[in-house]
Each structure stands twice: as C-alpha cells, then as structure tokens.
Amino acid sequence: MTKTIYLIRHAEAEHNIAFNIYGETAYDSPNFRDSNLTHAGINQAENVEFKLNVVPFQVVFTSPLTRALHTTSIIFKNQYIPIIAREDIRERYDRHPANNRKSIDKLKQLYTFIDFSEITNNEDILYNTPDDLVARTNSFINYIVSRPETVIAVVSHETFLKQLLSYFSIADTSLKNCEFKCVILE
C-alpha cells in the first residue's frame, strides 16, 4: 500500500533564536526548557497551514515537545483528524533543557485535542538518557507501515527528520523551521 508522508519541521522557537545569537550554549539554558514558538514561528505555521489545508490528511503524528505541538495545532486547526503525540519522534534525548518536555498532564491541558495515550510516562524520563536515533526511526517507520492511513503528516524536529529523510534516501535532508517535504513510501 502506497503511503504519502509529509515530514514537517516545527516552526521557529525561542531556543532557535538564542542559538543564532549565542551558539550551542543557548541550548544549555533552563530558560529554553521545552521552548515556545516565536511570533515569526506562529506566522510560519500559519503559512504552512494555508499551503497544506487542501491535502486530505488522515492522521498526524507529532512530537510531544511544545514547539511541535504548537506548530501542529496551527497547521491542522481546520482539519478534524486524529492527532497523536509520540515520544519516538522527538528531538535527541540529550542534556539540553530545550529537548526536555513538560509533563503530559500539563500538555493535555494545553492541547486538549491531541491524543497523548501512546505516551506512558507523565514526566520526561527520556531526558538525558542514551539515544538511539536509528532505532527510533526504524521503529517509527514500522509503526507507520502497520497503520491503515495512506496520507500522513509527521511534525517533528531537525535531527529526527534528517534521519527519516536519510532512511528514504532523500539526498537533501535539510529542513528549515516549518519547512516540509513529501515522501512516497511504497
């Protein structure tokens, strides 16, 4: 069964701006823990919503980090389809507070229309644990293949999406904030 998958990087977030100013050390700041979108990021997501609102998506998978959830909530605000948060499509599991999510209880309050049932831990137990990006990517691809939907959106992060694009043998794996690429999986 052929599947059309739109891979969407989250819109510009506060930690992205800080990185442009201060470099990698900005990611170490607790001020950017699970950072929010900037005004420019909100505008980016609104522009992508306009471009993708004609695509007949059947399901959306999103990272449970705030920047991805907010991006998802803007892009898919007028589409009444399942939106499922998944831990395995997050950014790196590393020491950076920017990659540490809020509790699921808090996120459920903020994003009531997103299904968090596939995330079993309320607190972020993955923060600062060893990360096997290749294993997460392979697992997620197997998960998508097993699903009945044929038109899918994935809202995630630069590192995870680069790995997915590499898996699909896409030469240019770069995605700017709120940029997307369409991949056909046969």
Q: Any idea of the CATH class?
A: Alpha Beta
Count of the separate structural domains: 1
Strand content: 5-15%
Radius of gyration: 15 Å
For the sheet with most strands, the description reads: 5 strands, mixed
Write the element-wise H/E pattern from the N-terminal end onward.
EHHEHEHHEHE
Total strands: the figure is 5
Helical fraction: 25-40%
Shape: globular
Separate helix tally: 6
Could you write a compact summary of the structure shown?
By secondary structure, the protein is α/β, with parallel strands linked by helices. The chain is built from six helices and five strands, in the order βααβαβααβαβ.
Task: Walk me through the structure.
With 186 residues, the chain is of the alpha/beta class. The protein has a single domain, classed as Phosphoglycerate mutase-like (Rossmann fold). It has six helices and five strands. The protein has helices spanning 14-22, 39-52, 66-75, 104-110, 133-146, 158-167; strands at residues 3-9, 59-62, 83-85, 151-156, 180-185. It has a five-stranded mixed β-sheet. α2 (39-52) crosses α3 and α5 packs across α6 (158-167). The model has no long low-confidence stretch (mean pLDDT 95).
Please render the helix and strand layout as text.
Blueprint: E1 3-9, H1 14-22, H2 39-52, E2 59-62, H3 66-75, E3 83-85, H4 104-110, H5 133-146, E4 151-156, H6 158-167, E5 180-185
Parallel strand pairs: 1-4, 2-3, 2-4
Antiparallel strand pairs: 1-5
Helix pairs in contact: 2-3, 5-6
Which characteristics define this entry?
five-stranded mixed beta sheet, Rossmann fold, 14% strand, alpha/beta, 6 helices, 186 residues, single chain
